[in-house]
Structures are given as structure tokens and as C-alpha cells.
Amino acid sequence: MGQEISLFPRYSQKENRTTNYCLLTLKLIYEDSPAQFSAVLESILGDKAPSVGVQFEQQKSLSNSTIDGIITQDPFTILIETKNYDWFSTDQIIRHLEGLKKDTDGLKIVIALSNFEKENEFEEVNAAIKKDYGNNIVFKALSFEDFLTAILDIKPNVSRPVQNTIDELEAYLDHASLLPRWKYRLDIVNSARSQDTIQEKGAYICPAKGGQYSHKRCKYFGMYANKKVSLIAEIKAVVGIDPTKPNEAEIQWNNSSEKDDELRKEAKEKVLDIDWGPARVFLLGETHETNFKKDSKGGMMGSKKYMDISHLDASDAEDLANKLNNKTWSEVESGR
Q1: Which pLDDT belongs to residue 120?
Q2: pTM given for the model
């Protein structure tokens, strides 16, 4: 027997808590407004979304008669398999499909909910659905970002308590690193002593230490010196390298479509003439000039600064450099 959805889940595993919070939000939306719950499903599943709630019809023709009035509700089952990371067992999903076929009636839907960063075709799963189930099961790979977007779309149409719950869910998903906020973040790095390396090698290299040299995941890199950011680049990957272990290199994050082994090789080549111990290598894409000015007094406090640039809607590093050109930090931080 399954566990009830609860405000106070007793699960110890993070994935189970995440599932509980997502389902709880959907449950509260449904209880507040079945129509808005239906809108969420339509946003997620498109024309394959089930009909939610009872239907009222009159003069309904049946096989052998016509009914004056009829109230019906179409059955449907939605199975949600949640993973905090983009790794799903095909065998597990196939077992879920078989269970749905045997144990449920009506429309059957399977949602794989995860922090998808790259397209996952689920070829074996889709082939099994087509071959063994005659396409009678709907399968959807859904990112937490898209799940949240579908809920945020109906947020103005539900009650204040449910709106607050949606806000809390968004905060939880963000804190749990299940939303790709890094895609909209610029890492401004104090590069006064590294400008030549950045321009010549297409990489920023720093000691692999904590504190001032640790970095949150970001999509963009900004080279700062003399009270301005003068170069913008996309961060392809960040690789940790220890000269005492030349055959090892740790991919701390990979923002690109390149294979990890290729990035490890590139990072090792960048640090051939570095002799100050374990290093953290930011592999950068093509750099683009800009003039993004720090307008407050004094220099930059600390070695780095993160800036939310989501409102600029930049398509790539070149576009971001153009949009930041001749702007001030305070303008961008205020959303202008």
C-alpha cells in the first residue's frame, strides 16, 4: 500500500521527499481548483492530457438507448518516477509499464521527472510502448524546470495559500539544485593577474582550494580588472587537476555537449606549465569584448561575484557581451 502525501513526510531519501513535495503541490492545486489542475496537465502533456473531473451531458446516446442525463468521469492513472539526477533504469520503467497495464484502467501516463540537462530520448522505453502496448501508454520525460513552469502558469488563478505553497516548492527545488539556475548566472572573476592566461589559453586557472577559489556552477564567465568586466565567455566545463595524479582529472561540471574525456584532455594541456599544485581549470568558449562597468566605490570585494542575468535573455556569450556593453553593475542588478 502506498504512503499518503503529507505536509510532514517521514522519508529519509531526498528523492522521496522531492516526490512528496511535488505531488503535495499538485494535490493542493486540485483541491483548490480541478480546472487549474487540468491546466497544469495540459501544459505538461499537451493534447495527450486526460480529462479531469466529472462531465455532465444530456440526451446522451448509448448503444441501445438515449439517456436524458448522464454524469461520467473518465479514469486515468499517472505514474511519476522521480530522480534527482538524469539516470533512469529502463528495466524499472518497463516494470512500471507492465504494472499499469495489469492493474489500472483508462488512460495510462508515465512521467520521468528529473533534472534533465540534455535531451534524453528514452529510445528503449518508447520502443517498448510502441511494440508491447500499442501506444496506449503516454510516456513523458519532464524536467523539474518544466514541471515548475507549468505550475507557475496557473499560480495567479489559485488561492493565496496554494500560491504560497508553489513559492515554497520553487524555493525547495532551487535549494536542492534541481533547477538549472546556473544557466542564467554570470561568474565575475577578479582576473587582474590572469588576463594573459585567459586570452591566450582560453581558460581561467586557479588553485583547487575552498573559500575564495570555490565557485558555484554558472554558464557565463566574466573577466574583471580595473573596475570593469572586459571579456565574456561561456564556461564549457570546470575540471579539477592534481599534478601528483596526472592520469586523473575530475569533471566538476560540464556545461557543454563535449565528452568528459575530451574535456579532461583539454584541461591537462592547459596546465602543462602550471607548477603550483592542484588546479581548477575553467575551460572557456570563444571570448567576446564588452565594457561592463562597476559603478560603486572601490574595487571588487573578494575574488568573485555572481550576477543573475536571466532578465537579459541572452542567447549566447556574444549576445550577453553586447547586452552588458556600456551598462553598469547597478543597472543589471536592478533588472534594467
Answers
A1: 64
A2: 0.68
